[in-house]
Amino acid sequence: MSKKQALVGIIMGSDSDWPTMQAAADICEKFNIPYEARVVSAHRTPIDMTVYAMEAHTRGLRVIIAGAGGAAHLPGMVASLTPLPVIGVPVESKTLKGLDSLLSIVQMPAGVPVASVAIGGSMNAGLLAVEIIAQNDEKLQAKIIKYKSNMAKESRAKNKNLNKKKAAKKKVTKKKTSQKKSAGKVAKKTRRKTADR
Question: What proportion of the chain, given as a percentage, has pLDDT over 90?
């Protein structure tokens, strides 16, 4: 967690959600974005959640990433109490594998928007938070552009590597086929010689 003034608030209903939410923190660190991570439960500590949501913008936060599983009320409740953009991360649940969390987060009433990423997609939540903050920061935008450019290079390299593997496999298959044909011809000649005797 950064010691500078946090710009991103990463909150979750329980510390058991941290393994899912950590990727968002990793992205913030990658782009040198100060963040804070806290357990704020909509059901167990609703008063704490309310205070956190209502004071977040006064403390300098720019975006809130809220992870929740099951009923997943945290992102929506926080969004109803803050003027900041809220990104919801559906945490996978044992019962419905996170589908319940996803539906709970995306089915918000008009007037209370919550951006949602895929189930367990806190990495994308972190990237979206960085992109939101980068709207007024040209240097940060340049970092994002470079990040995406590097992803494209990696993808092209994988494509090139795949084509090399395919070509090598085709060459081996062709060689084996050629060897089989040669072996077949030798066997045929041997049979003929044996028959002539």
Answer: 77
Residue 112 is given by DSSP the state -
- Specify the pLDDT at position 175: 63
H or E element that contains 147: helix 138-196
35: helix, coil or strand?
A: strand
Burial class (CB in 10 A: 0-12, 13-18, 19+), 88: buried
Dist CA 77 CA 59 (whole Å)? 19
Write out pLDDT tens, residues 40-59: 999 999 999 999 999 999 99
- Residue 181 inside a domain? The answer is no
Q: What global pTM score does this model have?
A: 0.82
How, if at all, do strands 86-91 and 63-69 pair? parallel
Residue type, 67: G
**143 found inside a domain:** no
